[in-house]
Amino acid sequence: MTEHSSEPVWEEFYKRYYWEQLLSLAGIYPENKSLVIEFPDIERYDLELATELLETPTKVLDDANNALRKTDLPMDVTLEDAYIRIVRISSKIDIRLLRSENISKLIAIDGIIRKATEVRPKLVRAAFECQRCGHITNVFQSGSKFVQPLECENEQCGRQGPFKLLVNESAFVDAQKLRLQESPEDLRGGEQPQTLDIDIEEDLSGLVAPGDRVTIVGILRSYQREKNQIKSTYFDLVLDGLSIEREDHEFDEIEITPEDEELIRELGGSPDIYDRMISSIAPSIFGYDEIKEAMALQLFSGVAKHLPDGSRIRGDIHMLLVGDPGIAKSQLLRYAIKLSPRGIYTSGKGTTSAGLTAAAVKDDFGDGRWTLEAGALVLADKGMAAVDEMDKMAKEDRSALHEAMEQQTISIAKAGILATLKSRCALLGAANPKFGRFDKYENIPQQINMPPALISRFDLIFILTDEPGKKRDTDIAEHIMKGHYAGEINAQFHNVQSSPVTQDQIDKAMEVIQPVIDPELMRKYIAYSKRNIFPVLEGDARQMIIDFYLNLRNQGSSDPNSPVPVTARQLEALVRLAEASARMRLSNVVTTTDVNRIIRIVNESLRQVMTDPETGKLDVDIISTGMAKSQRDRAKLIRDIIRELQQEHEGKAPKDEVIKRASEAGVDEDKAEDIIKRLKREGAIFEPRNGYLKST
């Protein structure tokens, strides 16, 4: 540790490199007290000073701050409370790699803000008045414990108190505690993300919110653990924050080398890029090419638009997979998360609304105060969130998804905390039918335990059914057996010394389940595309989308009794998917070829999901209200019959008579029973006594 002062060196550095910034700071001081210094500038000016700053930051920063405050400025301003903020330290350390040799060193750490306390004043210099002689003693406070004077500084008094804290005479600074968590994309193999607590003061406090991705530079401190006033030999690590850089750019943490970029551009130019992408998504699962193509589009997403009136149109594509058990929905979800440069996987049964969105928690971290903790959708910001078993989620937990999916924000009003967090992520959901298997003669909302308002927010919905068929079953069985065989000979090759298996045999067997594009390259390809490609719809492509939308709408305009086929929500989905299709081939123009591709995918989704099984017509109400127009008409008919019979039978309609009249009007008895049950469940009618119905 050097003993000489580095103040003159710092003064010269400010004058040579940061004179303009100093004058700007002087102009807005004391609203802003920070002079931001880039570490590479210090290295360029004096390498020895830069090394000293990393190794003994406390002393060097004291000298730097003193030099800043003493700098002679050509204006009547003294920067007596100014600080320097060091940014852009090249070598970042992962939280899990922090060790004892990093203590008291200047380090940079990046991650996601998981919790943040409120900004509160912290006492730095306490003024105590002696209650015997009235003398004022100043005590500087450091650490977390409140320190009182041992005795009065007045020589004529010298008593050991009592002392009274004079709040108006004491000095305070704004302070806040943050908890930083490792980024989910850096974790592999289901590792538990680690956290580090950060102490920040002055104008750094209040800058960030839970869910923000940041790089924090600070001095690593260690504090001795203490339980029941017994001191432990173990110490806790806390970072004394000196600067905060918010990461606003997407996927900056994924490093793409010039060689990678060349490979990506070459891949993007290949004519069979779509087939390659489809073959690279979950190759161990046979078939589902249409769904895999839609998943690829979801990974690339459309372009988010910021309009002049301040509103925002989402670019992220939401997709729902509904289907019979045992057809690899969960595997598809997990694979998508593996490919997404930023991805969070969660399962419905083990997920609460607080775990999905954000929670207000009261614990030791905030010294017993309420703090905000970011949930899965906030942590997946600018990435993808996969929610499995969505039908198993509690009703109140599912309602938390509505705002997150459409507005892509999460509003919190809990425990006196009012906040809006960002959740700009694509949602890939999976759900099972209520009664185990999917019934193609029933509408989707009646078969999934999910409200229509939530289902309607998905851009694409696919139904996966497990229907026996000799050829398909044979292909699936052979594909599964080939995968198992490849795994078996690979395990034997690595674990049995005298194994006859050769590497060539393994490579040949693995071909069937090998992705065409390596998953690591795929992640880089997606990150590169989302970072650099922003497609625009050309005239023909735009007109083609409009024509397709109008043709669908016209199906319902000719007959006043026809259902509404699609709404503007589906039009926006078409635009997002077309942009994603252009992004997939690294093109900044959306062409008619892209539109043809997404029309095929959207048609398939609409056919599966929005076709009324009774009329064969497209009906958007199946998704948006949970009831097809044909069903709604029958429900209205039955309510009218109940009202008529109420007038005839002194305010109560006999149930048997209702079913009889409905049957005469062309409604099957079974369907009439179902509609009565549904109307009772929705509160439209009730049963005042057994066998009688009454309209509300």
User: In the CATH hierarchy, what is the class of the domain at 95-246?
Assistant: Mainly Beta
Beta fraction: 15-25%
Looking across the biggest beta sheet, what order are the strands in? Answer: 3-7-8-10-9
Q: What is the CATH superfamily classification of the domain at 95-246? A: Nucleic acid-binding proteins
Q: Globular, elongated, flat, extended or rod-shaped: what is the shape?
A: globular
* Helix and strand composition category: alpha/beta
Distance between the termini: 83 Å
Discrete helix count? 25
Assign the CATH topology of the domain at 95-246: OB fold (Dihydrolipoamide Acetyltransferase, E2P)
What does this structure look like?
The protein has 696 residues and is α/β, with parallel strands linked by helices. Among the domains are: 7-87, mini-chromosome maintenance (MCM) complex, chain A, domain 1 (2-Layer Sandwich), CATH 3.30.1640.10; 95-246, OB fold (Dihydrolipoamide Acetyltransferase, E2P), CATH 2.40.50.140; 629-695, Winged helix-like DNA-binding domain superfamily/Winged helix DNA-binding domain (Arc Repressor Mutant, subunit A), CATH 1.10.10. 39% of the residues lie in helices and 22% in strands. It has 25 helices and 26 strands. The protein has a five-stranded mixed β-barrel with strand order 3-7-8-10-9. A hairpin with a 7-residue loop joins strand 15 (358-362) and strand 16. Helix 19 runs parallel beside helix 21 and helix 20 (568-584) crosses helix 21 (592-609). The longest helix has 26 residues, at 470-495. The radius of gyration is 33 Å and the shape is globular. The termini are far apart. The model has no long low-confidence stretch (mean pLDDT 78).
